[in-house]
């Protein structure tokens, strides 16, 4: 049990963390981290906070002093609160590294008051007797989004749910001990009684008893007496490396640490098809933590859409927005499939801005100081052009057929010195703006796409975002808001 925050002997709000081992009575609190040691700029406001420990992380939600107010003494905190120097925030402490990180979901809490927070666990289990239960942790908030909130208002009128996996909170059961014993039996002809054939014709020797125990699809196939069960031979229309990695998981209950990212991507599709929830979450976590690069983010993003993994999709969008400049230069956005392109565009609000952190010299000369930001507006407002000088390329645009979505930038192989908007769009989505290589020269790789409004899949809090130019804001439709009290 973790105990966080509270008051010291002088009545001041503290942010110390203690741990109590409930398996070793008598119970004694052991200090884990003091507020002075964390040095993260997080200052609690009074005791208005809630804590939850999940997936090796400590989540703390409540009101905090903003950086402009943190220079004041504790005796002035009440005045700071009255002067709107505080805001709601969600912080996450890694219990292994003891490092704090503020989560970029505060856009949802800019309006109204939020008075309760907890974590709701949703178990994913294929069969009742299946011990490999995968849990999805959803962050649940209660409050009132009315900005006026007259006296006597309902403190718990509105609910907000955020998918925990969009914050990389993957709750995966540990590996079974028997996995180390069964692993060497794979593809051993001795005592094997079943053959699985990959798409290229290569065979893998397996054991029916293991496949029946570990693979519900094969169990149903065996019980139904289908031709594969009678012939003891089955074909899987996937490349040999993917089939081998899949069988390795069935035998060892773990994913090989050396599997390349493209194999893990295909395993993600395979696990979704066969309803293997644990393997599916392992693939999501592995792809995000180890294989997320400029080259791999587009294929992973497309796979996340296909298997309906909202959490992974949100993490990919966050990565793509933060590395938007590098994506433009690498010309990877042009490889988006129509479905993925539509999904990507749907998360770009009309107020999206391509924020550039530093200037860069153009090959033809020095770029004007006014040319360090490219604003991406809805087509009803003109795209802000760079100054037409001899040292900076001109900007030209063509009208788009979109009426509902703002345009975003995509890299082109063109070598002209003008920026031309091409690629016509459908009536419900806007076109991708094509950037020429000469324009890319003044956009550093650190450029990111800055969005200033919260995006939710249902009735959302309409609010503006506190400007944080050093870090992009990701508020996505992994958060769902309702106007009814949710019964649990």
TrEMBL record:
Transmembrane segments: none annotated. Residues 192-259 form the BTB domain. SMART domains: BTB. InterPro entries: BTB/POZ_dom (IPR000210), SKP1/BTB/POZ_sf (IPR011333). It comes from the Eukaryota. This is BTB domain-containing protein.
């Amino acid at each position: 049990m973790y105990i966080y925050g509270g008051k010291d002997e002088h009545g001041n709000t503290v942010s110390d963390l203690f741990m109590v081992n409930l398996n070793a009575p008598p119970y004694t609190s052991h200090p884990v981290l003091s507020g002075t040691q964390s040095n993260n700029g997080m200052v609690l406001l009074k005791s208005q906070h809630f804590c939850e420990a999940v997936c090796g992380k400590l989540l703390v939600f409540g009101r905090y002093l903003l950086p402009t107010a943190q220079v004041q003494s504790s005796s002035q905190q009440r005045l700071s609160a009255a002067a709107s120097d505080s805001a709601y925030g969600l912080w996450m402490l890694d219990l292994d590294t003891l490092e704090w990180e503020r989560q970029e979901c505060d856009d949802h809490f800019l309006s109204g008051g939020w008075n309760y927070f907890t974590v709701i666990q949703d178990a994913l289990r294929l069969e009742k007797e299946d011990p490999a239960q995968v849990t999805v942790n959803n962050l649940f908030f209660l409050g009132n989004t009315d900005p006026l909130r007259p006296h006597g208002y309902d403190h718990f009128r509105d609910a907000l749910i955020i998918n925990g996996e969009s914050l990389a909170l993957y709750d995966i059961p540990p590996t079974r001990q028997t996995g180390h014993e069964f692993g060497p039996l794979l593809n051993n002809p001795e005592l094997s009684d079943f053959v699985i054939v990959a798409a290229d014709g290569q065979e893998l020797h397996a054991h029916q008893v293991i496949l029946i125990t570990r693979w519900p699809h094969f169990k149903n196939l065996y019980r139904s007496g289908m031709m594969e069960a009678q012939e003891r031979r089955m074909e899987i229309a996937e490349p040999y490396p993917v089939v081998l990695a899949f069988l390795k998981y069935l035998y060892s209950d773990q994913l090989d640490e050396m599997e390349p990212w493209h194999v893990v991507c295909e395993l993600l599709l395979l696990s979704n098809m066969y309803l293997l929830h644990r393997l599916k979450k392992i693939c999501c976590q592995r792809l995000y933590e180890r294989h997320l690069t400029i080259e791999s983010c587009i294929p992973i993003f497309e796979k996340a859409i296909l298997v309906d993994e909202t959490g992974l999709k949100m993490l990919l969008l966050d990565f793509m927005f933060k590395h938007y400049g590098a994506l433009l230069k690498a010309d990877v956005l042009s490889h988006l499939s129509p479905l993925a392109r539509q999904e990507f565009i749907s998360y770009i609000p009309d107020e999206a801005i391509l924020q550039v952190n530093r200037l860069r010299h153009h090959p033809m000369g020095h770029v004007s100081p006014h040319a360090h930001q490219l604003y991406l507006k809805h087509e009803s407002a003109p795209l802000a052009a760079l100054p037409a000088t001899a040292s900076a390329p001109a900007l030209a645009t063509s009208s788009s057929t979109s009426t509902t979505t703002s345009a975003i930038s995509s890299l082109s192989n063109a070598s002209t010195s003008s920026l031309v908007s091409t690629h016509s769009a459908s009536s419900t989505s806007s076109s991708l703006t094509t950037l020429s290589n000469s324009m890319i020269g003044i956009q550093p790789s650190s450029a990111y796409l800055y969005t200033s409004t919260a995006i939710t899949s249902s009735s959302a809090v309409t609010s503006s975002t506190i400007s944080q130019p050093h870090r992009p804001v990701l508020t996505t439709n992994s958060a769902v808001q309702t106007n009814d009290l949710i019964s649990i």
